[in-house]
TrEMBL record:
Record PANTHER family: PROTEIN ARGININE METHYLTRANSFERASE NDUFAF7, MITOCHONDRIAL
Signal sequence residues: none
Example GO molecular function: protein-arginine omega-N symmetric methyltransferase activity
Protein name in UniProt: SAM-dependent methyltransferase
Keyword field contains Transferase: yes
Alphabetical UniProt keywords: Methyltransferase, Transferase
A GO biological-process term: methylation
């Protein structure tokens, strides 16, 4: 694997190599300027992903792939999201969004981190076909991605607004698709005495990045201890920034539903004893590896979402868990099979083009089970279940865990 990764690095174009060099130099300088020449991994990850003009999500790297590039040896882009995979994803999701807009008596949608704008475009198109002319708002921290979104959404430019911050007293539907997995996390490890250590990043005499352990502060130790029992040598991560983000979002919604679509687990699965080294992964041209120091600035860095922790935030803020289930079950509940039946599959090539991506969305071995959908209602007055959670809703499992 290591040799394959370095072959990939050798094959990078000059712009990517320059980007990597600049990011590495910047991070080294940040560490040198810090107290004791170490910074928390959370801070290092934040800089690697979001530093203006240098970070992965802030540069002009091609991040997202289309389904047509997957067969390439080193595809353009580093990963493919559900909206980029097929428009049927948005067509199905629009069934659920339309229900929420009708019940909240609004036409407002707010999407965080809209990528290329593909999901926004498809949702506006589908809802328009249903007779719902939406007001679509996007919060995007990347200037480059904002540029791509404006290009994609040019036909609907009068319906779309880009915001810097969450609007106060928002009424409508909020979408966070593959957002929280890319938020910076704290890395931790239990030592042989069952004491919690937090991981920091330093540099050696060759100016290479190294991970260092430091005793966790009381706040972090208390939070982690409340979520799992100590296991000597066990390493994992905790996404406190994601939890703070959700708290802020809920506080600013007057009436509406937040949909979080991402890969992850309930807490007891995320911190299972066999998941001994955590879930942190990096992605570069569809190659996955766990060492974040290989290509900062040109690689994605992600971790799996703790859906129990997000549910706890919602309940603490007096919101309601409206549903939690796998992506496959959510899409099936929203009648994806009926939507597929209406597609033109008159030739073998059309069948392959349509059904190949659908298999990825629904298969337990692909996105179907790994990805989950969590719906949080704020001042939600309806008693009926949302259509996406009509069957096999797992939210009770999250809530029961929190009560124990």
């Amino acid at each position: 694997m290591q040799s394959t990764i370095y072959c990939l690095l050798d094959s990078l174009d000059e712009n990517s190599k320059q980007q990597l060099h600049l990011m590495q130099s910047y991070l080294v300088e940040q560490i040198k300027q810090s107290r004791n020449c170490i910074i928390p991994f959370e801070s290092w990850m934040d800089k690697a992903l979001y530093t203006p003009n240098l970070g992965y999500y802030s540069s002009k790297n091609k991040i997202f792939s289309s389904k047509h590039q997957e067969s390439m040896k080193y595809p353009l882009g580093d990963f493919i999201t559900a909206p980029e995979l097929t428009s049927i994803f948005a067509k199905t999701l629009s069934i659920q969004i339309a229900e929420v807009l009708k019940k909240t008596n609004t036409n407002k949608i707010l999407e965080f981190g809209a990528g290329t704008g593909k999901l926004s475009f498809d949702l506006i198109t589908e809802l328009d076909n249903m007779g719902i002319k939406v007001e679509y708002e996007i919060i995007e921290i990347s200037d480059h991605l904002t540029f791509l979104q404006k290009k994609t959404l040019e036909p609907f430019i009068k319906q779309v607004k880009w915001l810097k911050n969450m609007p106060y007293d928002f009424n409508g539907c909020v979408i966070a698709n593959e957002l929280i997995d890319a938020m910076p996390v704290k890395l931790f490890q239990w030592d042989e005495h069952n004491c919690l250590l937090e991981k920091y990043v330093g540099i050696n005499n060759k100016e290479e990045f190294t991970l260092l352990n430091k005793a966790a502060d009381n706040q972090l130790a208390d939070i982690v201890s409340s979520r799992m029992k100590p296991i000597p040598g066990y390493s994992s991560e905790i996404n406190l920034i994601g939890e703070t983000w959700l708290t802020s979002i809920i506080k600013n919604i007057t009436n509406g539903v937040v949909f979080i679509i991402d890969y992850g687990f309930p807490q007891e699965e995320l911190y299972h004893p066999q998941r001994y080294t955590g879930t942190l992964m990096c992605h570069l041209h569809h190659m996955a590896y766990s060492d974040p120091f290989i290509a900062p600035g040109i690689q994605d860095i992600t971790t799996h979402v703790n859906f129990t922790a997000l549910a706890a935030v919602a309940l603490k803020e007096k919101s309601e868990i409206l549903g939690y289930t796998s992506l496959a079950r959510f899409l099936l509940n929203c009648n994806i099979l009926k939507i597929i039946e209406q597609m033109d599959m008159s030739s073998t090539s059309k069948q392959i083009e349509i059904l190949g991506p659908i298999q990825k969305l629904l298969s337990e071995n692909e996105m179907g089970e790994l990805f989950k959908v969590l719906a949080i209602g704020i001042n939600w007055k309806e008693n009926d279940k949302l259509v996406g959670f009509a069957s096999r809703d797992r939210s009770e499992k999250l809530i029961t865990t929190l009560k124990n």
